[in-house]
Amino acid sequence: DALALQIAEGLCRETRAQGALVWLVEDSGDRLMLSAAHGRSRVDDPPAVLVPSAFPATIAAGERTEIATGSPQALWGALRHGGRVLGAVWLTDKLEGDAFDALDRGCVERFLHPRPRCV
Fold first, then answer.
1. Which of 50, 95, 93, 46 is nearest to 73 (CA)?
2. Which of 16, 34, 79, 106 could potentially form a cystine with 95 if both were Cys, beta carbons 3.0 to 4.6 Å apart?
3. Residues 6 or more apart whose Cβ sits within 8 Å of residue 42
4. Do residues 91 and 105 lie in contact, with contact meaning Cβ atoms separated by under 8 Å?
5. Whether the predicted pLDDT of 36 surpasses 70
6. Mutual orientation of helices 2-15 and 102-112 as an angle, nearest 10°?
7. What is the pTM of this model?
8. What 3-state DSSP class applies to 115?
9. C-alpha radius of gyration, the chain, whole number
10. Which long-range contacts (CB under 8 A, 24 or more apart) does 25-34 make?
């Protein structure tokens, strides 16, 4: 849970989102459990369990991020390893009412899937 909270806080900082929810895979591997909530979110009662069918279609199809339209606008991110989803993040309400954009998507992708550094 501490790692999930660090992920939520870091993504809010990187994207200027006001709220973040993080779900991580449970031991059985077939569903994700809500592990952290950070900041202000417009979801009063977020789902404690997230199943792959609840993901946006592009995330379910293998993309790492998706900007979901609607109110509130949200930015989804998937943490994957070997094609398997190990976690999901949902960011909402960017500061100053700005919209999430390609730069925010890139930040989430680099945060969730860092490239190894050369030494």
1. 93
2. 16
3. 19, 72, 92, 93
4. no
5. yes
6. 150
7. 0.86
8. coil
9. 13
10. 25/85, 25/86, 25/87, 29/84, 32/85, 32/87, 32/88
